[in-house]
């Protein structure tokens, strides 16, 4: 029995049950309710699981009230400022920052697996010319299991690590192929002499007819965005990966399910929605009008990129990416970008408005990331693909952690049934 308990009482029967309280390193304690049904005969009801802990995790911690995000205990601000994406990826998977030799070994392991089977590349020819890139990414990632079926024994730690390396390495290659299919250009093979993010940029923008020079500011900005997206606790797509993985499915299928969940506009598609909103607003002069529309519950207009289900303060990732946004636009010669001016003005007005201040609707990371992607020449349909590349190490770390958890069981949420009571079948000729 835990030292601390909470007693639950059925006020109708007077029956009581003591529930143990479990404490973590940071954050609210949790009540272990696994015996609730056997003790009192009840399940809990928590739509969206907003107050339920579905697992125990050592990976990421968020304090939404204080605007804190930690990867394995390290503040996101420090990692985004000083680390590389591959360094963060290894941190998430292995638990500690690597030394120089460990990082070089991890880099080599990822670089070794950047190529995809040529049969897989041909797979893209089956997609319609205007297929959404997330449809291609979700389908192709899931199909990887057909090429590596002999090394996807999830009970084997070496197989799990090999699959992790393969997925992280091949995501940019698959994304590059999806991008080229989308724009109608020849596929570009990975170049292992380039950095992870530099290789991604090259596969997106290089052409056989001309040289492509990677801009270091763009390379660093994209690497930073991938770091900011690398993990975010038990969000919708991560929970989907864990739920799919709890069935014992292969890692490629589990990560593919995460891609599918990320695709939703309320999740990974939010930065795409921000640009659509800015286009709808159009001019700085129109901002006050749209602010009023956003406050009107009967108006369908919604202010995208503001507020977050977890953060009740300023999203710490938004603070970092706002500075990077200005650096990118200045470097690329688009410092007078009208949408950035519009975004900044929208931010200023919203943060000075009592309606948004009282509800703590602060800008989140999606508010600025879409503008950076646009400045890099990436179509808005492709934004979520880049999000998926960044989130992949987090998905994998969560999947690996889940498989090693002795308390993990197959996911099986309960429900509150509100349908018809039991009734008997009526023959067709007797129905009125």
Automatic annotation (TrEMBL):
Belongs to the citrate synthase family. One of its GO terms (cellular component) is cytoplasm. Residues 1-11 have a biased composition (Polar residues). Keywords: Acyltransferase, Transferase, Tricarboxylic acid cycle. PANTHER family: CITRATE SYNTHASE (PTHR42871). It holds the Pfam family Citrate_synt. InterPro entries: Citrate_synth-like_lrg_a-sub, Citrate_synth-like_sm_a-sub, Citrate_synthase, Citrate_synthase_AS, Citrate_synthase_bac-typ, Citrate_synthase_sf, Citrate_synthase_typ-I. It comes from the Bacteria. Pathway: Carbohydrate metabolism; tricarboxylic acid cycle; isocitrate from oxaloacetate: step 1/2. This is Citrate synthase. Residues 1-24 are annotated as: Disordered. The active site is at residues 308, 366. GO terms for biological process: tricarboxylic acid cycle. Coiled coil: none annotated. GO terms for molecular function: citrate synthase activity. It catalyses: oxaloacetate + acetyl-CoA + H2O = citrate + CoA + H(+).
